[in-house]
Specification:
Number of domains: 1
Order of helices and strands: HEEEEEH
Shape: globular
Number of strands: 5
Radius of gyration: 17 Å
Helix content: 10-25%
Number of helices: 2
Low-confidence stretches: 1-9, 11-17
Strand content: 25-35%
Largest sheet: 5 strands, antiparallel
């Protein structure tokens, strides 16, 4: 009985966005602010990030769906106070809003990075 609530009349599953994976997504207007806010909670220690750089969002097909992807590269401070080599992460947007971070940097291939000082200024 409940399964009838989770499908449309055509038998297709209900989605919470208009994204069907083929239509162009809206550009994430506040992407820099959203990325900074997200990384502040994502990083174990957001203080002291070094070598921060960001590539502006571009449309890519990720997991068979059209998404805007912004890529970041940074070195976060480790618990022992040291730093690792810079990490590269893809940040995916759906309907113009930050959706998730991808640990793989594959969608970032060939993108041009620019300094991202907002990330280096994070506090707790």
């Amino acid at each position: 009985m409940l399964s009838a609530c989770a499908a449309t009349d055509e038998g297709k599953p209900i989605t919470f966005t208009d994204d069907r994976g083929v239509a162009s997504q809206p550009f994430p207007k506040n992407y820099r602010t959203e990325v900074v806010a997200f990384l502040k909670t994502y990083l174990n220690n957001p203080v002291g990030v070094r070598d921060a750089a960001m590539a502006e969002p571009v449309e890519r097909v990720v997991g068979g769906r059209q998404r805007y992807v912004a890529c970041v590269r940074f070195s976060a401070r480790e618990s022992d106070g040291g730093y690792r080599e810079p990490r590269e992460r893809a940040i995916l947007f759906v309907d113009g809003r930050l959706d998730r971070i991808a640990e793989t940097a594959e969608p970032c291939a060939g993108l041009a990075y620019a300094p991202f000082p907002e990330l280096e200024k994070l506090t707790r």
